[in-house]
Design brief:
The chain is mainly β and 215 residues long. It is built from 1 helix and 11 strands, in the order αβββββββββββ. The longest helix is centred in the first third of the chain and has 25 residues. It starts with 15 loop residues before the first helix and ends with a strand.
Length: 215
C-alpha cells in the first residue's frame, strides 16, 4: 500500500502533451543555432553585406530649340545711280558740216568716245546741237586739236547751254583743256569749233575728247 511518496525505483513517465512541448522547444533551439551559424559565415541578410546596385545609363537629354528665321532688316533708301551718256552715241539735232565720232589723240592722250568737228578757211565754223531733255546734270570733255591737224593751227572751242554761252577758249595744236559745266535742267547743248586762219587748203580737227553727259 502506498503512502503517497515516490520510491526510488519508480519510473517517471511524462504526459504526452508535455513531451510534445519539449520536442518543439528543442527544434526551435536547433533552428536558432542554424541561423546563428549562417550569420557568422556571412550568409543571410547581414549588415556587413553590400546591397546589389542596378545602374541604368540614361542618355543625355538633347534640347533642340527652333527659332523663327529673322527677317532681313530693310535697307536705307538710296538715291538714283549716276548715269553717263557719251555724245558720240547720240545723233545731233543739227550740225553745220557734220560730226565725226571716232577714237582720237589730243596732246598725246587717247580718247575712245569723242566728237570731232572739221573746219577750214572755206568753212571756218562747225557746230552741233544735242537734246538734253532736262535729264542731265553735267557736261564734261577734253577740248583740243586732234594731233594729226596741220602744224601751227589753232581753234576756238565754245559751249552754249539753251542759247547761253558757258565756255569759250582758243587752243593751239599740242595743247588741251578740261571742260566741266553744269547743265542741270537744260534742254539744248551746242558745241562749236571756229577756225580763224587763212589756210584754205588744209582742214583742222577740233575734237571734244570723251564728251559726255552725267546725271
Amino acid at each position: 500500500m502506498s503512502d503517497g511518496s515516490c520510491s526510488t525505483g519508480a519510473t517517471y513517465r511524462p504526459r504526452n502533451g508535455h513531451a510534445k512541448r519539449l520536442r518543439i522547444t528543442a527544434v526551435g533551439f536547433a533552428a536558432i543555432a542554424v541561423l546563428a551559424s549562417a550569420t557568422a559565415c556571412g550568409g543571410g541578410d547581414s549588415g556587413n553585406s553590400q546591397p546589389t546596385r542596378t545602374i541604368t545609363k540614361t542618355p543625355p537629354t538633347v534640347t533642340v530649340t527652333t527659332s523663327e528665321p529673322s527677317s532681313p532688316k530693310p535697307s536705307a533708301p538710296t538715291g538714283s545711280t549716276s548715269q553717263t551718256q557719251y555724245l558720240s552715241d547720240l545723233d545731233p539735232l543739227k550740225s553745220t558740216q557734220g560730226v565725226d565720232t571716232s577714237t582720237v589723240e589730243i596732246n598725246g592722250e587717247g580718247f575712245a568716245q569723242s566728237v570731232t568737228l572739221i573746219v577750214n578757211a572755206a568753212g571756218p565754223v562747225n557746230s552741233a546741237e544735242y537734246n538734253l531733255g532736262r535729264h542731265w546734270g553735267r557736261f564734261s570733255a577734253t577740248a583740243g586739236l586732234r594731233d594729226d591737224s596741220p602744224t601751227g593751227g589753232k581753234l576756238t572751242f565754245e559751249v552754249s547751254v539753251d542759247g547761253k554761252q558757258e565756255y569759250s577758249q582758243t587752243i593751239p595744236l599740242g595743247k588741251s583743256q578740261k571742260v566741266d559745266l553744269d547743265v542741270s535742267n537744260a534742254l539744248r547743248l551746242n558745241v562749236t569749233v571756229t577756225y580763224s586762219g587763212q589756210d584754205a587748203g588744209s582742214s583742222y580737227y577740233g575734237s571734244w575728247g570723251d564728251a559726255r553727259l552725267q546725271s
